[in-house]
Amino acid sequence: MTTKQLYEQIKKKKSFLCIGLDVDLNKIPAHLLETEDPIFEFNKAIIDATHDLCVSYKPNTAFYEAYGIKGWQSLEKTIKYLNEKYPEIFTIADAKRGDIGNTSSMYAQAFFDDLQFDSVTVAPYMGKDSVEPFLAFPNKHTILLALTSNQGAFDFQTKDTEAKPLYQNVLETSKSWKNSEQLMYVVGATKAEYFQEIRRIVPDSFLLVPGVGAQGGSLQEVCRFGMNKQVGLLINSSRGIIYASNQTDFAEAARSEAFKLQSAMSIILEHN
Prior knowledge:
Number of strands: 10
Order of helices and strands: HEHEHHEHEHEHEEHEHEHEHH
Radius of gyration: 18 Å
Structural class: alpha/beta
Distance between the termini: 25 Å
Largest sheet: 8 strands, parallel, barrel
Strand content: 15-25%
């Protein structure tokens, strides 16, 4: 999927919502545990209930890998279901991969060729040759960790290196990499005050923004400082939507929470 196609979906749905599919078997409704594949059945119900309100889904692969081969099979079924039934949806493998070149090539092949995700999150710590293998895939996107929403982000990301914070060096350096136009960046909503500087460095890139909702980030503040001419934001919410209820009405409850965010986004889009 191209960024132009993604922007068309944003305009059509009046939404730039990304829903995180982080499935914990301890939190899903008990009746699903009796099914053959509880994780997939949960995801399928959430997707069917919310697909018209969002433009993206983001499974965090750790929540699938934790259950071994069965969990991975649930992930495969989920992405296949999305690609076949809702091909307009932008899919993100939240895997945070990144290793030496030949290893990164295999990671990229796994997520782009085998699973057919549109994008994957990647850690930049090992530099250019660990990221460019992901960028070699046409119409696929690499979402680089830049400034994350967790408290530990202040350990390294905001510390000065060469008179500027490390996250700024990551942003600036990554622009020189081959096929860098396929880069997106993770920027946490809990760091809203940094968005102006980030937009100075990467004015045209899409930003994946976790931290709205359960982590306390402000949608309005993020949009005020982070939105560009093509919106350029994917606002992620996971727990606040998918665990709105742990009863048989879980899908309807998830839709209700997603609708609240989509409605707020629609108003913001009308005034920009």
